[in-house]
């Protein structure tokens, strides 16, 4: 792809803070390196390993995964590709969802389950401590305080360094913070879905990292329906996905997008978005 507004090299300097950790402003989400329906091994294992290694080669220092991706497959691939992990590389994972088949997700926030899930993630990732461990989603059958309390116990035992939460509203975030220090929130957020705006406001105010999942719903698939996105992309000789990522980066200094892919080509395109500078007019056009 020929670009005029995006440099040919990749970003190395722009960073965001997660607690006392400093990571690259653009991370990598490792859900899509698994099989169809986020179930089982990838169709091309060698390419999945290349994607992970290429991300690190290009300056990515934050990789997000979960025990439910595969299940277990994503964590195993990360360890195979990257362990032992270099200094500054942060591998974050999540627990609290279980799988019974492709496309099926069930919540389980019981403390006993979270303890077992964390132990299994430690083994698969080949580490003694997980730098950021996130509750994947509140379980309506279990008090949130109990789920987060289990993570606090694991933190005190030295098995996790920092605690994050995912798929929470503002009141749930507040409840979690009454139990433990929460350094990150991972919620769905993108150009066309801003329902987590109240949570992002809290994160901005208090310096909590915000990890938007599904950051590319307004990317290439939505270009035909979103004229403004297509026009801004054309103006910069960029892809709609790159514009969608650049918009997230410009939206807030606590934003840490984690676009995922199973393709080295798409990975490289996504990472170039850090060099895309949207003007005030561009951002106004995107809303």
Coarse shape: globular
Mean model confidence by pLDDT: 92
What proportion of the residues is helical, as a percent range? 25-40%
What is the CATH H-level superfamily?
A: NADP-dependent oxidoreductase domain
Strand order of the largest sheet: 3-4-5-8-9-10-11
Fold-level CATH name: TIM Barrel
Straight-line N-to-C gap: 27 Å
CATH class division: Alpha Beta
Order of helices and strands: EEEHEHEEEHEHEHEHEHHHH
**CATH architecture annotation name:** Alpha-Beta Barrel
Number of strands: 11
The chain-level structural class is: alpha/beta
How many domains? 1
Please work out how many helical segments DSSP would assign.
Answer: 10
The main sheet comes to: 7 strands, parallel
- What are the low-pLDDT stretches, counting only 5+ consecutive residues below 50? 1-13
Radius of gyration: 18 Å
Strand content: 15-25%
Description:
By secondary structure, this protein is of the alpha/beta class. The protein has one domain: Alpha-Beta Barrel (TIM Barrel). The strands form 3 sheets. It has a 7-stranded parallel beta sheet with strand order 3-4-5-8-9-10-11, covered by helices on one side. Strands 1-2 form a two-stranded antiparallel ribbon. Strand 4, helix 2 and strand 5 form a beta-alpha-beta unit. The longest helix has 15 residues. The chain is globular, with a radius of gyration of 18 Å. It starts with 14 loop residues before the first strand and ends with a helix. The N terminus is likely disordered.
């Amino acid at each position: 792809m020929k670009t005029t507004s995006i440099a040919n090299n990749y970003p190395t300097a722009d960073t965001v803070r997660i607690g006392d950790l400093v990571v690259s402003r653009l991370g990598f989400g490792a859900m899509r390196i698994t099989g169809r329906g986020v179930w089982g091994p990838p169709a091309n294992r060698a390419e999945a390993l290349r994607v992970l290694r290429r991300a690190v080669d290009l300056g990515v220092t934050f990789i997000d995964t979960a025990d439910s991706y595969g299940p277990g497959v994503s964590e195993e691939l990360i360890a195979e590709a990257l362990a032992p992990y270099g200094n500054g590389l942060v591998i974050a994972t999540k627990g609290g969802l279980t799988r019974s088949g492709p496309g099926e997700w069930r919540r389980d926030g019981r403390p006993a389950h979270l303890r077992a899930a964390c132990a299994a993630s430690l083994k698969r990732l080949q580490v003694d401590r997980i730098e950021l461990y996130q509750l994947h989603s509140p379980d309506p059958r279990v008090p949130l305080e109990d789920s987060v309390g289990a993570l606090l116990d694991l933190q005190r035992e030295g098995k996790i360094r920092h605690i994050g939460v995912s798929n929470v509203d503002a009141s749930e975030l507040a409840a979690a913070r009454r139990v433990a220090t929460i350094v990150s929130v991972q919620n769905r957020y993108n150009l066309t879905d801003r329902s987590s705006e109240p949570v992002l406001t809290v994160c901005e105010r208090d310096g909590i990292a915000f990890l938007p999942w599904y950051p590319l719903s307004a990317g290439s698939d939505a270009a035909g329906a979103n004229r403004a996105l297509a026009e801004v992309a054309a103006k910069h000789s960029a892809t709609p996905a790159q514009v969608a990522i650049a918009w997230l980066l410009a939206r807030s200094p606590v934003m840490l997008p984690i676009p995922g892919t199973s393709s080295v080509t798409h990975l490289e395109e996504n990472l170039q978005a850090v060099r895309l500078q949207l003007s005030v007019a561009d951002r106004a056009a995107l809303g």
